[in-house]
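DATA SHEET
Item: assembly model
Revision: 1
Owner: S.N.
Input lines:
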Amino acid sequence: MAYAESTSTQNNHILRTVEVQKSFVDPVEVEVLKNINIWVDKGEFVSIMGKSGCGKSTLLYILSTMDTNYKGQLFLADRLLTGLSGNELAVVRNEQIGFVFQFHYLLPEFSVLHNVMMPGLKLGKKSREEVEFDAMKQLRLLGVDDQATKKATQISGGQKQRVAIARALINEPKIIMGDEPTGNLDSRNADIVFDIFKELSSELGTSLLVVTHDADFAKRTDRIIEMADGRVIS
Amino acid sequence: MSNGVLIQIAKTHLLTRKKQSAIASLGVTFGIGTFIVLVSFMTGLNGLLDGLILNRTPHVRIYNEVKPNPVQPIEKSERFKGSVNMIHSIKPKQELSSVRNSLPMMAVLKKNPLIKGVTPQVSARIFYQSGSVLLNGNAIGIDVLEEDRLFNFKQYIVGANPSDLANNENGIVLGIGVAKKLSLNIGDRVQMLSSTGATFRLKIVGFFQSGLADLDKMQSYVNVKMAQRIAGQGNNFITDISVKLYDIEKAKYMSDQIANTYGVNAIDIKTANAQFETGTSIRNIITYAVSITLLIVAGFGIYNILNMVIYEKMNDIAILKATGFSGSDVKKIFIYQAMFIGIVGGLLGLLLGGVMSYAISKAPFETEAIPTVKTFPVNFDPLFYLIGSVFALITTFFAGYLPAKKASKIDPVDIIRGQ
């Protein structure tokens, strides 16, 4: 376990990067992220905006710990994640980070309920019954509990995204990350998802970090991090 | 707990593509089934073929070979010591063909803990007589019950039990070839002329059928006493002593020891029948080579199907990894799938193999060589079923391991961003 000394005095940062840098070397070396220093506070709803190709998704995948090929440091709740092994990072993702993607990415063979339960079963801290209870609670919270027994392929896009959010919430993560979570939804469903996010941050104190190119969506968040050409510009 | 969910995912993957899983399992089933059938049948046949010779052959045979004295008188002479002596036309020693000191030697050998049994044989040259026709032949005197206990004498006689001969001093088990030539039946009497010129009339209690036509035309069996009378010798006249050991591997050691201790000729089964050993091991090699090939083919089937599944499941793998399943978890999911296929296919294969072996063992198989065998010989050794299961597990594990390792290395970022 590597805990780095905190360089900032505030301990309210859930997620923090120090001088994160990333280059693609193939075919020629291109620096896609330059000296990124950002943070997300507890209970804060932050959006990352930028034109496509500005590196915002690349940054999100570094923050999500799935991409480990970068320079600089990444802290989650003041724990240095940079340099941890793949298995250790998997545990971090399972326990502390929830994901919502543009495409809903549910497991097609499993029921809605089962999809939500999966990360909880993986974590293994609760019995199967408790996990099932939690999963039903999340589905109810998101208004899709009536779909619980259906196969993941049998529900609509908006419902799928809500199920995906329920799955992200099952282990009560410190932070939820989304990559264009409303990008594939009509405006009504997009509003529903936004409201859910808003509620999560204000009522449950969950931090949210959402990549989007939807300016209307971004405006309604607590803070916008704007990126261009691999840099944070505001 | 965590493994439980992995097993559940593996199970769901398998059950949602039942046809593919079934085909992959069937590959293993046929591989293992064929292995069981092949090995059982081949070793059964091997046992039968070896039994034809090896069970009947003494592990050590003690006999007296007619040969020239290795130390000629001239070697002993002081006058010619150190010179090169060349003698032409050396004649063998004139002596009886019986083993010297046979009775005390047998008494001592019987007490040896390595030896299962010792039985005497008396070989007497005779002519079978029918009117003016004389047929060349051989009457072998045996201790019938011991001979049966040690060398399965019963397998080679038709129409009688060994005890029928043992209980009848004047009985004979006549070579079936002789019986056919002389048109003799069980209960008839056969007339024989000994080399000393005496005539014997013996009652036929059964026929001897070895499957070797030349032997069946010559050889007959009588009691030891009768053979000694035919040979015109006393009760210490024993031409061969057959020794059966508990462990056939000790035959060479034992024969050397007997030859050195008693100054007799002794030959062990391996030296006498080297070709059988070779035949058996080559048949075994072929059996195992064919079976292993079948299993490897089944393994490739599993490998192929899992590879396809992994390509289809790229998204799922990415999402599992994103939600906190590690590379080794993903690897386990696919190895579990392979093992499921292996276990189910393997068990069915054992069943299939068992049933097919049983069917073969009931199929009629008539052979001249062993009149007592009526169906195909099959060896139901549980060891083969054990080997089959282990093979199934090992092959499916490796067939699953390679695709599973690939799956564990899938980078979720590539998949998720690639959409």
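QC remark: The beta strands of chain B are 60-63, 115-130, 133-142, 157-158, 171-175, 189-194, 199-208, 219-223, 240-245, 265-268.
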